[in-house]
Amino acid sequence: MTSDQKNLAPPESSKLKATENQANPSSAAHQSQSPTSAKLTWREQIRENVQIVAIALVLALLIRSFIAEPRYIPSDSMIPTLATGDRLVVEKISSYFHPPTRGDIIVFEPPPQLQRRGYSKDQAFIKRVIGTPGEIVQVQNGQVYLNGTPLEEDYIAQPPAYNMPPVQVPEGQLFVMGDNRNNSNDSHVWGFLPQPNIIGKAIWRFWPPHRIGNI
Predict the structure, then answer these.
(1) pTM for the predicted model, two decimal places
(2) Among the listed ranges 12-21, 101-110, 153-162, 186-195, which one has the minimum average pLDDT value?
(3) Which listed site, 36, 97, 180, 182, has its alpha carbon 20 to 30 Å from 22?
(4) Is 77 one of the annotated active-site residues of the chain?
(5) Which residues of 129-149 are buried (b: 16+ CB within 10 A; e: fewer)?
(6) Looking at residue 57, what is its pLDDT?
(7) φ/ψ of residue 85, rounded to 5
(8) CA–CA separation, 33 and 95 (whole Å)
(9) Which residues contact 162 (CB under 8 A, 6 or more apart)?
(10) Which of 92, 127, 184, 187 is catalytic?
(11) Under a CB-based contact definition with an 8 Å cutoff, are residues 109 and 135 in contact?
């Protein structure tokens, strides 16, 4: 072998290193990975987490605005049906398709006549629908009458201890009352409720645990 041929031949150590690299390509790739690539992966994970949180917040806002929301009962005006401290689910979908019917328990913003008395718009009320547009409501001798017929009300705390002359519910409005008739700031005090003030219908109690169930 000539001296040129000796110089062209790779040393034994180079052959061994090349063989190891061929046998373990992943090891070679790992050695070639730069710190910049790792940083990009970390940033992508952060970006994905932020996107997930943002989507969850948007969905929660949409659900609360258009589908349902939780509510807290701050007073005893709906005893015995609802007690102070009860927590409810108020659904909002049904009001988009049909108006409330007699007997529905609804949550609503204070009507203009209450706002003029100092109630804030976000100070929600909860009452039971008694009269719908066109119906005549009267309270006489401890009995609520609807269109001249006494209502059967097994849900009230006690009969009303007041009288109210007959009133006809105008179009687009409702007559609402609390089940605790003698301790309720309702339509017999301040008049009719405009239907656009309705927030939703109370459908389910989720607190306290021993009272969980439909309303």
Answers:
(1) 0.73
(2) 12-21
(3) 36
(4) yes
(5) bbbbeeeebbbeeeebbbeee
(6) 62
(7) 100, -15
(8) 59
(9) 139, 182, 188
(10) 127
(11) no
Annotated active-site residue in 13, 14, 37, 77: 77
pLDDT digits (tens, 9 = 90+) for 97-147: 888 999 999 999 999 999 999 999 989 999 999 999 999 999 999 999 999
Q: What does pLDDT average to over the chain?
A: 82
User: φ and ψ at 82, to 5 degrees?
Assistant: -130, 135
Taking Cα atoms as reference points, which of 114, 128, 136 lies closest to residue 180? 128
**Among 45, 181, 24, 129, which Cα is nearest to 164's?**
181
The first and second tokens of residue 132, run together, are: 């719908």
Separation between Cα atoms, residue 86 and residue 70, nearest integer Å: 10
Long-range contacts of 145-154 (CB under 8 A, 24+ apart): 146/102
pLDDT exceeds 70 at position 28: no
Task: Read off the amino acid at residue 7.
Answer: N
95-103 — which CB contacts under 8 Å span 24+ positions? 95/198, 95/200, 95/201, 99/132, 99/195, 100/129, 100/132, 100/174, 100/195, 100/198, 100/201, 101/129, 101/132, 102/129, 102/130, 102/131, 102/132, 102/146, 103/128, 103/129
Q: In whole angstroms, give the CA distance from residue 33 to residue 96.
A: 58
CA distance 52 to 50: 5
144, β-bridge pairs: 139
